[in-house]
């Protein structure tokens, strides 16, 4: 089965779960914040988990987009345009809103949560120390639905209610995420350029040997996948992680 283009899903609850109204196990959406890869490159899975930014109220809508790029060569002497040529795919983008409210305690919880979001737009201290500055990577997750590894392209916080002393206690944050694909463009293996790579999103029960068997028909080639993703411990695989799977031409080259 081909890897998902954007989101992965663990499936929907059974109809019985809705027979008496809303499901009892309401799950909050969350932004899972990870360190960037130590190598500093984007063609790797996210680094270690740092913290979660949980949605106080689940978003009422998600705007997901992905564009295909097409181009046409100029034909000055032709009556019609040249046939379109596919130039590649743009990264997926996810736009959503986070509603924050602290009117129950009238404290600075909203300010702190907004500050957490803004930290996702600046380089982490660890990455600066390693001289490979990068903001953290994030993954949007809601119940059984897992998004793509992304960076926070922008955060806009609109404060709408304040205490008498001026502390914001209500805000609406608009968050824009952009996919960190990391896939290498397909090239002709005989040209000496890098071969095309596939990706695989891990699900429960996956192992590197099982991924290698599906990709190459040989479970023993799992080390190539581990090396391509900087995996030191193949026993610690997180479901939802998107792995780069090197092309067979790279292994045999």
From TrEMBL:
Q: Where do the record's region annotations for Disordered lie?
A: 1-23
Q: What is the lineage of its organism?
A: Bacteria, Bacillati, Actinomycetota, Actinomycetes, Pseudonocardiales
The record, for Gene3D superfamilies, names:
LysM domain (3.10.350.10)
**In which domain of life is the source organism classified?**
Bacteria
Q: Where is the composition biased (Polar residues)?
A: 1-12
- Report the Pfam families cross-referenced here: CIS_tube, LysM
Protein name stated in the entry:
LysM domain-containing protein
**Positions of the LysM domain:** 198-245
| Organism expressing this protein natively | Amycolatopsis pretoriensis
